[in-house]
Amino acid sequence: MKLDVQNVSVSLGGRTIVKDASLGVQAGEFVGIIGPNGSGKTTMMKALRGLYPLEKGHILWDGDDLSSMKEKEIARRVAYMQQSVDVSFGYEAQDIVMTARYPYLKWWQQEGVDDHRIVEEAMKETGVWHLRERSIQSLSGGERQRVFFAKVLAQQTEVLLLDEPTAALDLVYADDIFYQGRRFCEQGKTILIVVHDLELAAKYCTKLVLISGGEIMATGNPRDVLTADHLHSAFHLSSAVYDDPYFKQQRIYIFPKGTTDITPYRRSTEIDESMSIFIERTTL
């Protein structure tokens, strides 16, 4: 499903959080939303789901204006995994995942055989089927994340909005979620994912959107967005961005704050042509 964000601004509590954002996403793209804490990533994701009103601009899903769509219509197109979920109630994990089926049921209907099959498949996909009868409160943070990931899969939408789905996950499961996401996109889904692990984003995402101060600073393929200059502008850090010598992967080395001489951190005096380095106000 195609997404078109046109000059969108979002204000909360009298403060503009997202400023004049414009973005185009094609069906099948795996888009990483990156940027420092408090930059507006989560606000943007909630606006894309229709959870926040727009101060200005338009959000179009396949040409349909989000503001004119009813809740169930949105829920049949777009599934949203939020950053954190209140788990004060002791529902079983499978009941949490089953709530994803609500867009397809009338108020008087109960879940059918197909709904139970879809939930089972989603929980097996994310490796939590064996936890189906466990209270959500009894699960670890990582297990909960995988349950909520199963929930968005069970919603069977063309679009997934994932807000830091790898929080609390170990290295294996974090990588697996990105691997699955890339595979789903190759099958036709469109995914936007908020991510702090830039190397993981570079490894799997087909497009990155860098947000800082509520504004989109850069958009494009990972190689174009992940440069030392861009990282300094957004995160105010000194870094080196380079190609892994053994694998098809971008690497990012962050220098300690205040670094003015990179000599102690280098194994070689040579600088590869593909490497970008930013130290203080000097670019190499």
UniProtKB/TrEMBL annotation:
PROSITE patterns: ABC_TRANSPORTER_1, ABC_TRANSPORTER_2. It is an enzyme of class 3 (hydrolase). It holds the Pfam family ABC_tran. The keyword ATP-binding applies. Its EC number is 3.6.3.34. The keyword Lipid biosynthesis does not apply. Residues 3-238 form the ABC transporter domain. Keywords: ATP-binding, Hydrolase, Nucleotide-binding, Translocase, Transport. One of its GO terms (molecular function) is ATP hydrolysis activity. This is Iron(3+)-hydroxamate import ATP-binding protein FhuC. The lineage of its organism: Bacteria, Bacillati, Bacillota, Negativicutes, Veillonellales.
